[in-house]
Design a protein that fits this description.
The chain is mainly alpha-helical and about 180 residues long. It has six helices and no strands. The protein has one domain (about 1-180). It is about 85% helix and about 0% strand. It is globular. Belongs to the MntP (TC 9.B.29) family.
Length: about 180
């Protein structure tokens, strides 16, 4: 019995790590915007929270909607990331500090939803499988929160090295990630 739980825990941890790597990648791009440590903390916390909420909602939704919303969620997430990346690229060429979407307030919610939509799809699948919801969402939230923080901090370091070009690079990363979701190869 304990071996089955350890095996399931290992499987769920690998899934949580994979979903968290999405958050890391996007955090890396977003971290190239000048962010304060407090903003980095809040961004990681919110993304971790959404990586708890989205799979939980997905698990609750279950088998009925799995096929239709699974693919739709990926396309919505890709479009949001593409939009954020384009906005970052455009902002890097302007002198203005004002952004259409910023990683705070409503912009942070849009960012968090975009990053965590794939965990909704995974939640749909896990709901069918009958996975333990508490363990699953705890691992998803923890991995994505920590990996977002790591991505944001690495992005912040790269930003200090690249200066004004870092925001364009961050936008390019988000555009690439959005295209990867929209145009699976």
């Amino acid at each position: 019995m304990a071996g089955i739980f350890v095996g399931e825990l290992l499987t769920l941890s690998m899934m949580a790590f994979a979903l968290g790597m999405d958050a890391f990648s996007v955090g890396l791009g977003m971290g190239m915007i000048k962010l304060r440590k407090q903003q980095i903390f809040h961004i990681g916390l919110i993304i971790g929270l959404f990586h708890v909420i989205m799979p939980l909602v997905g698990m609750a939704t279950g088998r009925f909607l799995s096929g239709a919303l699974g693919v739709l969620a990926i396309y919505i997430g890709g479009a949001l990331l593409l939009m954020l990346g384009i906005q970052m690229m455009l902002a890097s060429f302007k002198q203005s500090e004002e952004r259409l979407i910023s990683p705070e307030g409503p912009g942070l919610l849009i960012f968090a939803i975009g990053v965590s939509l794939d965990s909704f799809s995974v939640g749909l699948s896990l709901g069918i499988y009958g996975s333990k919801p508490i363990v699953t969402i705890a691992l998803f939230g923890l991995f994505s929160m920590v990996l977002t923080w790591v991505g944001l901090l690495v992005g912040k370091k790269v930003q200090s090295w690249l200066g004004s070009y870092s925001e364009a690079l961050g936008g390019a990363i988000l555009i690439g990630f959005g295209l990867k979701l929209l145009l699976p190869i």
